[in-house]
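Bench notes, afternoon.
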Amino acid sequence: MPVKLTAPDPARLLPVPGVELGIASAGIKKPGRKDVLVMRIAHESEVVGVFTQNRFCAAPVVVCKEHLHGGQDDKTGGIRALVVNTGNANAGTGEDGLRRARETCAALAQQLALKPEQVLPFSTGVILEPLPHDKIIAALPAAIADLKSANWANAAEAIMTTDIVAKAASRKVKLGEQEFVVTGIAKGSGMIHPNMATMLSYVATDAPVSCEALEAILRVAVNKSFNCITVDGDTSTNDSCILIATGATEAPVLMDDGDARFVPLRNAVTELMVELAQAIVRDGEGATKFMTIQVEGGRDEAECKQIAYAVAKSPLVKTAFFASDPNLGRILAAIGYAGIDDLDVGRIKLFLGDVLVAEHGGRAASYKDEDGRRVMAESDILVRIELNRGSANATVWTCDFSYDYVKINAEYRT
């Protein structure tokens, strides 16, 4: 049974006052494909972001960081536009890649009457290939002509690469006496592993939020969502997650975490990002199973995550789940090599769904292979690991490895 994949309903994606989105086809990889997205955001919007920790980070990531650092002050007028292309990552392209990213920003800025540093560039696709920025620049007028607030569904399609379905979500959140919108899109399917996740995501709200409060919200939301997923353990060169607060709906500015509105907004953004992050895992290249790896009773969250990721990244575990084969000793092996030196394996309990698999350092007396096989035949599976050495816990989401994962990545450039 394939993993559950659902494309977003455009009617349920709520426009965010102060954000317009336009799509165009530049023919970067395939003729006629939506592959360029332009986002125009209201004056005085606050924009924050987190990016890949890969040392070979892409040229657009470098330029984004420069513009976020220098484009948020009163002299420039703040970040006012984003431009995204698919089909080419502009990574591993050296100084030439930086030049092409900056020229793309300058071209969009000229057409929107902005300064180049008010534009953030993003790319996704093949690494080590020159960015065809002339094609992107030629497509900008069409994207600008398409700018509209109710274009989130098309925008989600425009940033896809190997994704099977687009990923988008919306929330309404009540802050005090007023209601605000949070809407976001994401792309990702393969090359997925935290630090920070390997994907692109853009989330916006019309709530008025200070830059400092927005950064605090983003840190928490990303760590509980995009930094809790893995498909294949490969961290991309282009990871970017952007959070925008337009303040286009009039209300007092939410300045810091002392404001009573801070936690409800943080929770709404986090819930939306969790939905997008889980959609990325469900769309893992060739995925047929969605697995939740839940580690409980650790000394701290860090060791719980360390163990969860050891299980979630294991090719042997992932292929066993694809085959619905309860070869569950592979999970114990992954727990054992996770790197927790003083782990007492005799205290660990392993559950597959509602089935106790292992305890006291070995197979549970009550475990039957047919019970494991029954759970592994499902498309959504919970793996629960009780460490019984503390009160901390962590949850990671992953998927299986299928034949299609190899095929998709073997033929990625063709």
